[in-house]
Amino acid sequence: MPGSAQKPLRVVLNFRETLIFVHRWMGVSFCLLFLLWFLSGFVMMYRSYPEVTAADRLSRAPVLDTSRIRLSPQEAYTSLQTQEAPSAVRLGMFDGRPLYKFGFGGDELLVYADTGQMQNDFPSEMTLRIASAWSGQQPGIAKIEENMEEDQWTVSGEFRALRPILKYTWPDGEEVYVSTVTGEVVQYTTRASRVAAYFGAIPHWLYFTPLRKHASEWTWLIVGASGLGTVGALLGMIVGATIYSPSKRFRYKGVPSSIPYVGPKRWHSILGLMFGSLACSWAFSGMLSMDPFPELQHGREDPTARLATALHGGSIPLREFADKLPREAVAQAGFEFPAKELELTLFSGEPVYLARAAQNETKIIPVRGESRSEFDRDTIIEEIKKAVRPSVVVEYKLITEYDAYYRDRHKRLPLPVIFVRLNDDDRSTYYIDPKTAQILQSYNSRSRWNRWIYHGLHSIDFPLLYKHRPAWDIVVLLSLLGGTSLCITSLYLAAGVLRRTMSTIIADRL
Question: Could you give the residue ranges of the DSSP H alpha helices within 388-470?
Answer without folding.
Answer: 447-450, 457-458, 463-467
